[in-house]
Amino acid sequence: MPKRPLDHPPGTASARNVSRVSPPLPDTPTALLGNLTPAQFMRRYWQKKPLLIRNAIPDIVPPLSRDGLFELADRDDVESRLITHFRNRWQLEHGPFAPDELPPIKQRAWTLLVQGVDLHDDRARALLDRFRFVPDARLDDLMISYATDGGGVGAHFDSYDVFLLQVHGRRRWRFGAQRDLSLRPDLPLKVLQHFEPEEEWVLEPGDMLYLPPHIAHDGIAEGECMTCSIGFRAPSTQELTGQFLYHLAERGARDDSGDGARELYRDPKQPAVINPAQLPAALVERVGAILAKVSWNERDISTFLGTYLSEPKPSVVFDPPARPLTETRFIERASKNGIRLDHKSILLYDARFYFLNGEENRLAVVKKWLVELADSRFMSAKRFVTLSDDSSVTALLHEWYCAGWIQVGELA
Ligand code: SIN
Ligand code: CO
């Protein structure tokens, strides 16, 4: 395959200094939401109906160049997919992809999807931060798709709330709230059997489309294009129930709370049988009685949600520093430069507990510094200095630094 030239889509900035962007406040109108306030958007559109926003981010700059995206797709700690629609045939391949494993950029109708770009790139993370008027607990990731002319992933629906932000080139979106969501059974990817779009718009760079879960949609590139999908997961009842029961089972295995969790099944009254394959009715009854005793409280639910929703995806690998600073040097450096959560870290909290990357920790009360760090994902040097006399805090932060969960230094 021909080598791809090293050019970038027009408008891609090369400088890496990224300024932090705060999310809009709930009652402040913002261009990002078509001059609605986040509070109005959440009330009128979130989980309810699509919204097209022209010029949501004026003068948008793609977080990554095409080549930058292709480099990410070549990494084995990054989830990527290639979808081709050549000669009217859908095909799906999973990455990583070496640059010469991707079709030539002159070829029509292919799409490269790269998940979790926010975990690896400051600009993508900064873009995602604009959407933090939605709770982090609902956040999935920022995905970037690159498509050649005619490229798309087929008409489908997602189980996600998604903001589809056009960052380069043009894409024609068609969508509708159809009831029939049956999928073509013969394909390696989710494509609707019947697609009945109700609306159609061409999105230019900076335009954005919000879609709630289960809205049928299809986006087709008009020329080379790049789209950022900021996705918010909406777990199914089946997923939540299954994962919660698993969490309860793990809890039972960890601490035998004296409620007989380790007790073995007993059947001292079992008579001899002539139908050995038949499930004994007494067994069903006894196990029913055991299951009826399974109980949980609100704390179990918060613990489950905090640990489950802060658990990094299986592909995530943290990068602990190769030669970590001693605690004293760490304090010196953090007092000059501040600290920030690593892009891969997820930190959630409630009134008494915090949840960092899938682990639950208890504090007598959740401390102000922790709330600030979790909500803003950084701590200024000045703020760090106010805590640096408390060795329990600096020891904990040093531990997080050694694990690669936080970094010294703010974004520029
Ligand atoms: C894409 O960006 O090509 C697909 C995104 C989506 O439809 O969810
Ligand atoms: Co979609």
Question: What's the β-strand tally?
Answer: 15
Radius of gyration: 25 Å
Uncertain parts: 1-16
What is the beta-strand fraction? 15-25%
**Mean of pLDDT:** 92
**Level of helix content?**
25-40%
CATH topology of the largest domain: Jelly Rolls
Shape descriptor reads: globular
Straight-line N-to-C gap = 39 Å
Name of the CATH class of the largest domain: Mainly Beta
Class inferred from helices and paired strands: alpha+beta
CATH superfamily membership of the largest domain:
Cupin
The major β-sheet equals:
9 strands, antiparallel
Protein name: 50S ribosomal protein L16 3-hydroxylase
EC number: 1.14.11.47
Cofactor: Fe(2+)
InterPro entries: JmjC_dom (IPR003347), NO66-like (IPR039994), ROXA-like_wH (IPR046799)
Explain the overall architecture.
The chain is of the alpha+beta class and 412 residues long. Helix content is 25%, strand content 23%. Strands 1, 2, 3, 4, 5, 6, 7, 8 and 9 form a 9-stranded antiparallel sheet that branches. Strands 14-10-15 form a 3-stranded antiparallel sheet. A hairpin with a 2-residue loop joins β12 (353-356) and β13. α4 packs across α6 and α7 (327-337) packs across α9 (381-387). The longest helix is centred in the middle third of the chain and has 18 residues, at 237-254. Bound molecules: succinic acid (SIN) and cobalt (II) ion.
